[in-house]
Amino acid sequence: MPRILGILGGMGPAATVAFLDRLVTLTPAEHDEDHIRVLMDMNPQVPNRHRNPPGAAEALGRMATSLRDMGAQVLAMPCNTAHAHASAIRAAGIPFIDMIERTAAAAVQTGAQRIGILATPGGQDLYVAELERQGRAAVVLNTGDRRAFLDTVFAVKRGDVDAGQRMEMRRLAAALVSQGAQVVIAGCTEVPLLLASEDVTVPLVDSAEVLAMACIAACVSTSSHDKCPADSVI
Length: 234
What we know:
The chain is α/β, with parallel strands linked by helices. The protein has helices spanning 13-26, 53-70, 86-90, 99-108, 121-133, 143-157, 163-178, 207-219; strands at residues 5-9, 38-42, 74-76, 114-118, 137-139, 183-186, 204-206. The protein is built from 8 helices and 7 strands; from the N terminus they run βαβαβααβαβααββα. The protein has a 4-stranded parallel β-sheet with strand order 5-4-6-7, with helices on both faces.
């Protein structure tokens, strides 16, 4: 039987719903029972990850513990920025899939030496540190474009995914490429709601898709004799 996946969601709601759709679509299944059982806490009321880090950490820790107590065996969170509080989630004592580490590794596997990051300021800091740990240079937006990026993310959160917002996200990705990025990380789960791989002239690594694939690997055993990869998830 697949392991039970607990999802810390709601940051933001549209991105979480899109992630669940990705998870279902990518799971190799012929019948309902082949899919992963998911327990989710869709909590848009998690305190702001930038303005109230202690409050966010406390809320995420409570969510992780609650999901564990409901039966979750593996945890995942489709919000890059909130991974700054991963330690509070890991305190629940069950495996937590690190979206930042997995996505950075996927970007490194392309062979790129200079990796562009589309992320919030907090998410950007996490990716810069992780890419440095993995021996790669990060390419980031300038100050004005970082503000423009946040504006597009906030637009998604209020339901605005029109052509203007899509054009702006394409422009921001192109700005990273013009600065030498050989691959671009969609390091905010709102990005894929505006940007597709064909919109970028270099490979686009979608953190939501990377996380979905990692959840499938951690929860679905290919045979009854396989050791579930979740045993080694950090």
